[in-house]
């Protein structure tokens, strides 16, 4: 807190104050943030906090690309991977992030989020926007 208010930072190694002109960036999951926010000892920090919510990926095709990138830049790049493994893992991950829709299947919702058209296969499927409106800003 003193770094942002007074423009200097007091280190822990017995050195003098270091000049500071910047921002402090932190990240947290939702439950830890709520605990931090509800602690009265943190009121001074809360006046200086700007929250940027970054949702999880909700598209199977994008999730697969993330896994491929992680694999390609790791020691597992040449390891065998059964066909459909990344797609199955992606579907499982996406389903765990979605809110259950009313009058529709969560599987249809997942497919609509991945830009599939279900007009001919699932008459109960809603549009992308209808799913997003019902889910609110906390989905993902």
Automatic annotation (TrEMBL):
Pfam families assigned: AAA_PrkA
A molecular function GO annotation: protein kinase activity
InterPro entries: Prk_AAA (IPR013153)
Entry keyword Glycosyltransferase: no
Keywords: Kinase, Transferase
Residues of the PrkA AAA domain: 1-105
Residue ranges, annotated region (Disordered): 115-140
Keyword Transferase among record annotations: yes
PANTHER family: PROTEIN KINASE PRKA, PROTEIN PRKA
Protein name (database record): PrkA family serine protein kinase
The organism's taxonomic lineage, starting at the top: Bacteria, Pseudomonadati, Pseudomonadota, Gammaproteobacteria, Enterobacterales
């Amino acid at each position: 807190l003193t770094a942002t208010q007074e423009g200097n930072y007091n280190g822990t190694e017995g050195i003098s104050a270091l000049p500071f002109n910047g921002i402090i960036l932190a990240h947290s999951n939702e439950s830890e943030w709520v605990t931090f926010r509800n602690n009265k000892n943190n009121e001074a920090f809360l006046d200086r906090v700007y929250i940027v919510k970054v949702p999880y990926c909700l598209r199977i095709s994008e999730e697969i690309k993330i896994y491929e990138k992680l694999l390609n830049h790791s020691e597992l790049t040449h390891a065998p991977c059964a066909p459909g493994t990344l797609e199955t893992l992606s579907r499982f991950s996406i389903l765990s992030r979605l809110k259950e829709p009313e009058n529709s299947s969560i599987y249809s919702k997942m497919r609509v989020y991945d830009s599939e058209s279900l007009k001919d296969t699932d008459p109960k499927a809603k549009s992308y926007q209808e799913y997003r409106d019902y889910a609110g800003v906390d989905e993902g």
